[in-house]
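Quick entry, no commentary yet.
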Amino acid sequence: MNTPLDRLKNLTSKISGYEVARKENLGILRTLYTLLKIDDKVECFDDIFLFKAINLSGISLKEEEVGKAKEGKYLQILAILYDKKASIKSKNISLGYFGRVEAVEKKLRENIVEFVLRWRFEKSFKTLEHYHDMIKYIKRDI
């Protein structure tokens, strides 16, 4: 039977596992940020998390075909910046253009896919932290 203590131990184990994975993820993400020369476009590493999203053109990120090149397309890392004060709210920014996808070496394609997935992993934690903080402002009368 699952006692409250067992459930707490299980939850603690999961949380510490996520924190270890997150720390490792950030280290690798920082390396890829430099390796892919994204630091040429975004000087401060932490500023990459100001983007609402980072997407790829030329390579699939669908779970069933992740990393599959789309022949005839151009490989590019695209970031979406959202400015609620601007007349045009969202803006696409190229973080890296690599040419026709079939001409890009396999290892570089793998690094690009890994960068985007690792960025999304960390961004999800930052989003979670943001909403956790936002909930503190809600007063419940129920």
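second:
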Amino acid sequence: MKKYVNLLSITIVTVLLFAVNGRIYSRIMLDYDIASLCRMAELVVEVKELSYTEKDWFRTDKVRVLQSYKGSLKAGDEIIVVMNTVYRRHLWNDKPYTLETKNGMTIEYIPKKLGLTKALMFLKKKSIKNDRINHPIRYVPIANGIKYFRKNDILCYHQWDNPGPFVLSPQKPELIGLKKGQNYTVIELRKDLKLAQKRVKRFNQALKSNDLETLQEYLPLLPTQRSRSMYFSANNLSRTAAHKIAKLADKPFIKRVLVKYENQCEWYVRYVLKDALKK
């Protein structure tokens, strides 16, 4: 597994650099589907943001749990969510910039505030060293695992440019279908989440029982992921299934699934399976 992690770092990290106070931060966001986020997260919770501060390139959110879908928290619990300020609180097409005019005047454009307070968050507990935040229990989001609620849509994080920050854009349906003219709101997001939880449950059962026939169905990226840039798209279920198949399946089986799914998979999954054929 270690060599795949190293390969991932070498191959895809065109680095986003931030130099602050002598320190350099590098980030790249993988665009996980909602089922992957469910499987990877320790907590899946709807929250209301009570306050947030930004200091030393870290954003600290104090949030109250409204509803819990995974983990030990319950409604009313308050937690601290910490993230790097590479997560920007503005829309992808509303980017701040500085403009210097011909007569020497400098105009700074600041994006409008979105007034976001409620969100579905996919979190992991983590102790962040040297972040100067004195709180014993903190949580961090998993990649694009923050979905902000608005009246007529859901906003989620994407990294559209590399290098580039993580900015907000409208969330698209992943496992559900929408009728013509139907908005993707918190109601639709909850339906996607419910289907994602069922998908993860079925996957985990197949993984536990070494059901390779079922696992190979999870190798492709979701159609919604393939419609975006496959460079950033990632699927935890696909990657986990690939490793299990590479470990247990014979070469004819691996060749068969590669022929069937290769053009629908992210590069990581293709590499794992092709590498297994060489052994």
